[in-house]
Amino acid sequence: MLDDLLSGADQAMVNAFTSGFRVTQVQTAISKSLPDAAATAAALESAQVVALGILVREQMTPEQFDAVYRPFATVLPGPTYRPAASIDRQIAAFLRLLPTLKGEVEAEVAAVAKTLSQPPKVAAPTAAGAVPGFAAPAGLNPAANYTAAWKQAISTANQIGRTQAFRAMQDSAEQAAPHDGLGIVGFAGVAAGAIFMRDALPIEKVLVLYEPFASAFPYESLG
Description:
Structural class: mainly alpha
Shape: globular
Radius of gyration: 19 Å
Helix content: 55-70%
Low-confidence stretches: 129-134
């Protein structure tokens, strides 16, 4: 989507955010908060996408821009930022939206969910001149991060005496999700559990667990 929109953008501005001095500035700023090299590389790539999205923001719907800006939404609130709704309202909105998933949107949810349930693939060697396949940067393992965040959510719920209500949130979401074989039912329960534990978990853990549904209905839009 951004590729198409950027064809009409100022090329000098596009270049500034994809190479050269501007990238060095951003990378330096990010590395101060993320000492891990692999995490810094991933954050830099997200920052470049966000910057390009800002360049063509007027050509996008608010929902499209929210999805592009999402990696930074909880750290550097965007222009349409509003405080998060209460946990009850967020869960109610999530349960209301789940049955609407269908077609390409639901397929994307399922694809992200599948990625988060499997270890990253190692890129196979490529012939000279061939385009290399995608591989997660060294040190980044989305599936491991997802599993660790879920274990932390369960442990925290047990520690603060919310286990029964926590499971009830999961069950409600699993019942509301489409049962059409695409495999998102369990992930819906995980996302609802994360929302329910929002006040007791670091926000990055909540967002990791909500990730499969972020493109369909951004977390920041719930409620």
